[in-house]
Design brief:
395 residues, Alpha-Beta Plaits, six-stranded antiparallel barrel, six-stranded mixed beta sheet, 30% strand, alpha+beta, Gyrase A, domain 2, 9 helices, Elongation Factor Tu (Ef-tu), domain 3, globular, 3 domains
């Protein structure tokens, strides 16, 4: 049975749809109302808040904490300054991706790692002989993300110090830790508090957000938002190297569009040699952004005497990607959605390296009325949506 998060007394009372799903063993709201559209637009045009407590969270402390993370993580954590946050990958010895997440440096010898899977055993195993402690704080620390263009104005009404907080920076305020990060591709913050203070924080945030019509949002809206941002999801857009028996399903950072998170030229780290060797060869696979042809979708439905019909939520159903002729499979779509703000049908897909260049033409399997058809698509740059206010800081 799924466990309640520390925010459950408030999220359950607000969830009129009764639509829940399991997330890392916790009960998480899919949509608060019968449709998630209002929650989506709340984030893109004002602000929304989502309970992200199910994220796995680890505090690493001690003189060797930075060295341990630098060994296991794609980023050179030894160079991460206090109050800074970075995003990257946990790697295995073959340079394959175990998980992706963030590392925050909250003090000289204090780091916080977030991930989508449990990694305490992995961290402790590699911590042997090092002066570092690893604490799993998943159950004792609650987290809520406040996302959207009004997020800064909303939070600075509670904590004025947040007003000048830079992108991927963190600050401690009144017993809470506020980090300027998120999973929506918009201006956003994540707030961390002891679990016992979660309900009070939720109420405080709702009150501060009242002038901006802030509302909670669930995982259905988040899925559309993160696809627009071009963000990958472990277990959907790629598999952890620990979670598959098939070598071909294990991926390097480059193959899941996370090669930019690898600080390769530094002191040795786990998987470094394998990644360096891989980069000396042409890429076999690449995770790309696709834009599906809207006229093609219209024509497809018209051929069946139907108007275009799109699912009201994102799809994680994998479907084949073919070359421009439609005869040879060259990959597969992992996530797709209609993007309300860009007015485009977007997808994330893994394709053969030869088809990864922007502008490459492919076809996607599309199945209206139980008939397997194909729709034209083109490889495009990610992110699909990247507003300037996401990174900017007021003067």
């Amino acid at each position: 049975m799924a466990r309640p998060t520390p925010f459950h007394p408030r999220t359950s009372a607000a969830c009129h749809s009764y639509a829940w799903k399991e997330w890392a063993g916790y009960a998480a709201v899919r949509a608060y109302d019968l449709h998630s559209e209002g929650e989506y637009f709340g984030v893109r045009h004002a602000a929304g808040m989502i309970d992200v407590s199910p994220l796995y969270k680890y505090d690493l402390r001690g003189p060797d904490a930075a060295a341990l993370l630098a060994w296991l993580f794609s980023r050179d954590i030894a160079k991460l300054g206090p109050g800074r946050i970075t995003y990257g990958c946990l790697l295995d010895e073959r340079g394959k991706v175990l998980d992706d997440g963030t590392v925050s440096r909250l003090g000289p010898d204090w780091f916080r790692l977030t991930s989508s899977e449990p990694w305490r055993g992995w961290l402790v195993e590699h911590a042997l002989g090092r002066a570092v402690t690893v604490d799993d704080i998943t159950e004792t620390v609650a987290a809520v993300a406040v996302q959207g263009p009004a997020a800064r104005a909303m939070l600075q009404a509670i904590w004025p110090a947040v007003s000048k907080l830079g992108f991927f920076r963190a600050v401690a305020v009144d017993g809470a830790i506020v980090g300027r990060t998120g999973y929506t591709g918009d201006l956003g913050y994540e707030v961390w508090v002891p679990a016992g203070e979660a309900v009070a924080l939720w109420d405080r945030l709702l009150e501060a957000g009242r002038p901006y019509d802030v509302r909670p949002f669930g995982l259905d809206a988040l899925d559309v938002l993160r696809i627009e941002a071009g963000f990958v999801l472990q277990g959907v857009d790629y598999l952890s190297s620990r979670a598959t028996l098939l070598e071909r399903r294990r991926s390097t950072p480059d193959e899941v569009s996370l090669g930019w998170t690898v600080d390769l030229d530094r002191a040795p780290f786990l998987g470094q040699a394998a990644i360096r060797e891989e980069r000396g060869r042409p890429p076999v696979w690449a995770l790309v952004g696709l834009e599906l042809s809207w006229p093609g979708i219209e024509q497809l439905y018209a051929s069946l005497d139907l108007p275009p019909q799109l699912a009201p939520v994102a799809s994680r159903e994998p479907v084949p990607v073919y070359d421009a002729s439609g005869r040879t499979q060259v990959g597969y779509v992992t996530s797709r959605t209609w993007s309300p703000i860009t007015k485009r049908y977007l997808a994330l897909a893994t394709v053969r390296g030869a088809y990864a260049k922007p502008g490459s033409r492919v076809k996607i399997e599309f199945t209206p009325e139980f008939e397997r058809r194909q729709v034209d698509a083109v490889v495009v740059e990610k992110p699909f949506y990247d507003p300037p206010h996401k990174r900017g800081v007021p003067k």
